[in-house]
## 1
Amino acid sequence: MKALIHETVAGFDIQKVRADFPILQEKANGHPLVYLDNAATSQKPRAVIDAIVRYYEQSNANIHRGVHYLSQKATDEFENARKAVQQFLHAARPSEIIFVRSATEGINLVAQTYGRAHVGAGDEIVITAMEHHSNIVPWQLLCDEKKAKLRVAPINDKGELVLEEFERLLNPRTKIVAVGHISNALGTINPLEKIIALAHAKNIPVLVDGAQAAPRVPVNVQELDCDFYVFSGHKAYGPTGIGILYGKLALLEAMPPYQGGGDMISSVTFEKTIYNKVPHKFEAGTPDMSGAVGLHAAIDYLNNLGLENITEYEHELLTYATEKVSAIPGVRLVGTAKEKAGVLSFVIEGVHPHDIGTILDQEGIAIRTGHHCAQPVMERFGIDATARASFGLYNTKEEIDELVKGIKKVQEVFG
Amino acid sequence: MADLRELYQEVILEHSKAPRNYRELKAADHKAEGFNPLCGDRFTVFLEMDGESIKDIGFQGSGCAISKASASMMTQSLKGKTRNEAKELFERFHQTVTGHAQHQDSLGKLTVFAGVSEFPSRVKCATLAWHTLQAALDGKQEAISTE
């Protein structure tokens, strides 16, 4: 780590990129921080931190309601952030972008509005066996309420969706398909084009959980033709507390509102309330303005580096890490899909992942250990937990070498 | 900086690899299941009581080195103890692993877990089996959870 090689990889200068992230200068337990927990949350570049400070120092006021200068300025910044997200996802219109708290809230919103309006007793919702709890539990809540059934498409031993089984689950009672773009526990990239084509052939709308994908691969919701797409700002180098729901305009317009309050109405009397048009219909109350501005800065940052460059660079990191880590005797990778991104889940023979995490932490290496909010995935592989290293655009091969050394140290302690 | 060897002492590693009393008690009259949803650790503690005394004790389940060694050494230290002695020992054990102990020497072999106090994220690992024991002694039916 002392002699990081100055190299330009995949179209950007990694040393310059690292210098953009103040937290990477921190030490952890006396060692330079090696942050490999990006699937949980990413670190923030100076540009994002500065944008939030600048918003509070120069622009803060409540939006969409004041006549004064600052209110207009804050409104413009908020709506410009919406446009930036629209372009980031390649959506057709800014009004198809709803600001929410997180990917989780986006899924809950769809389940509680579109879902409650369209799912009835005996109907079915199809998900996959690799979903994060956030793409399981909102649908379970809906199924419980409506006496509907949650059907789960299986995955194979590599952690890939079994497409034929998925197709077999689709039937006239299927009202929604909800599927992750990239699995947080396994790194599997799902074949969205095929999934969406199969569902649409039966007129079933598809929600895509893009929490892991938005910071890793270019997303084009129009080309994908997905009906809903959600992601979280904080996993995409933006702030916590802001997330995005994309929905096709016709669907959003037909959906009942989610929460009631200010901003989501166009007129209120005690007898009747007329709801505002989309996207405002789904944005009750004062939103996270600074979060939207911070997310805008994160998107600008990603665009400057280029999503294609990031994809390529992280792929190189993952390939290198896969090679190095799987070469260690006694280490087994969990999740070996052909199409993979960002995540290396592994187990070490005779060592519980929790102990791996503690020992690596003493070396300054931050990884996640546990079930990764995907207990059914753990069950599928017959394990309680894994250790997971997940990569971001600022990670280096030298950091992966540190991880490998750390794993060997774990084996020494337990030797 | 906390010392890894303070946490992973030889005796702890040894118990985690070859846990004692790792068995289901056919004659158990008390049992409880404990679960740490954060890391997936899951243990069942079995008790055979003779009046107020613990006649026999065993456990089964899966977990990290700390939780497994703690369960193993707990079973060793409790055989023949009364219900109240067991609860009192848990009290002192808890104080030790959270760094609030007054007299560490009164813990005997269990003193090896004092290093856990330097690793706050691991306290629940060390106490999972003990919480499960308490639930078994209290006759709780539902699985207990650290969260």
Note: The mean pLDDT of chain A is 95.
## 2
Amino acid sequence: MDITPSESPADSGLPKFWDQIFLLFLACVIGLVAWIGVIEYREGHKTESIKRHGEAWGEFFKGNSAKRTEPDYSIEACAAKENGSATWGDCYQALVAPGGPMDGLENPFFKTPQKLAQKCDTNDRSTVGALVLEKLTPLPLGSAVPIAVSAIESGDRIDKKLQIRVSVCDKFSSPIVIGEFQF
Amino acid sequence: MTPPSSAQVTEAPDTSLTVNPDEQTFRQRAYAALLDPHIEDNLHKPIEKWIGILIVANLLALVLENVNEIYTPYAKWFHYFDVFSVVIFTIEYLTRLYLAPEDHEFKRSSSPHLKYIRSPFAIIDLLAVAPFYLQAFIPVDLRALRLLRLLRILKLFRVLIPAWREFVVANRGRTFRQKIHALVYPSEYGGELHHLFDNFIALWVVISVVAVVLESVQGINYVLNIEFIVLDALAVGIFTIEYCLRIYSSVESPGMAHPIWGRLKQAKTLPSLIDLLAIMPFFLEAFLHHLLDLRFLRVFRLLRLLKLTRYTGSTKTLSIVVVREWPVLAGSAFVMLLLVILTASLGYLFEHEAQPEKFENIPQAIYWAVITLASVGYGDISPVTPMGRLMTIILALLGIGIFAIPAAILSSAFTDQLRIEREALKKSLHEMLGDGILSEEEREHLHHEAKRLHLSKEEVNQLIAQARKAYEKEHDLQGMPLHKIAANPELAVEHFKHVLGEMRQLALLTDLGKFDQIAAEKKRLTEGEQEIWLKLQS
């Protein structure tokens, strides 16, 4: 390897053997960065995809908040009726059932149908790409926090209006809050 | 090998402009004030700089316009910015067109305006603004218009091409690796291209750090997630190339000639470690994210900001100061530590019984002691016993002095270091003026150093004046003792000539007849002296 520092006689300035090796190495490094960049970009698109799913849930809640109180509401399991017995579990099943408004939402990280999780858990990889729906319950005045946040349980009654927070879990299983909607 | 001077690299200045300013036409005066690159302190450099900034801002605007969430609410402002940019670029184009007959590149032509219009740079300038005017007459698709506006990047060639030419000339006959070294490290061969490289890296540092900060804002990250990913990959790509170039060419630096140890030595320097830390999170997260949650490494991307320390001398001065004053600082830190431990122990002793939940143990008491000593006083832990309160009073009073010591040491040492460096600058100025002339390169070095030492223009001029005075005093032989003149053969020759000249003057002015008569009568002159006297008259 040429180790003479500077002050060499006139040179063509073109890359020599070791320079070419270096350029090859540099090209490999650039290739590596580009490859990781592409992977990150694809992962980013997966996150975008689950965000769109979350937004779809949000849109559904927003658009059906008033409709579901009407007597002839099409999704009977989600209808809000006085003295009704509709539960969240039944409603959810009706929504994701084949032909339901939320049918076909796929978790792009695992290529499986998007599942509902209690919460995004960074220690639980299975919650990556999952949907998290939490109910927001106002607490009495003077409470330490104004609103209590808890996961919606299957048995929770939905015959009255609910304030729902929609979140999705990213590739690290950290929550991305989509928004809060009335349903 | 010595690099060609800037005068050799660039074309010779137009001497026709050195005529009396009163005799110059308005166009000549305007060219000299605005565009002549050979005149120092005119507006040429600031104009180039601000046009360059506007081009970069245009590129950023173009990128942001593609994000609907940003573009839609601020479409009006984007349009205003576009109009503003086009107005500036049009003014620039028309000014260059008007002043073309004064530009030495076009003035020899029979039709300088036409020659300018046909020149590559003018075509680029026209392409940068043409799409804007085009849409006024022809309905152009917005996406096509944005694509055409990308042509504004070409305007950067106005800066890049001359810098590249200068670099090629300065590095003629040098090896490929030496050229890389000249590009990435400050040297006499780097020229403007090296400055552009530095500015490019600094710009990317700022962009990537701003991106990292904004990424933490959930609302922004929600909208720009993909853009941040692309930006980070681009930044890492650029910084990785920079790091490789620096390590590979470091063997050209003095004291780093060995192909392996030299490069390792370079890799172990603080700036190189910072460079490595700036890119490592990206690679570690990509390869190890399945094994470990390495998201915390993302915060380390903010270390990229430290890369900017390479371009400022102040941090170097500060590190010199810290190293120099380290024993005193360490001593002061030791006293502080001693005081904290002692007072925390006493606090624990006096307060534990009264408040066992707050002064549960000595570590908890240390927290109270530090908060009190630093005059922060959160108030979450406070003493209730008389002795504990007395301790707090003593601690608070001591804290004022103890914390002031390192600050005072650093501040005085920093001032001292600046004084030392200014003295060094003064000394090098004396050396520069050794030949009585301040060359262009010396002047540039002086301005660079003055900027680093935060000296104003007036202070620099004062320093130059002082150095000139000292130089003149040094070369004023009349007031100098003879032994000092004799010690310097060059001065001795000058002095001899001076004495001889005075003797000749004496021979011309005095009455030679009377002189000879007195000298002969009173035998005042020896034969040898008489001979010299006669020779002086011949």
Note: Residues 17-64 of chain A form the longest helix (48 residues).
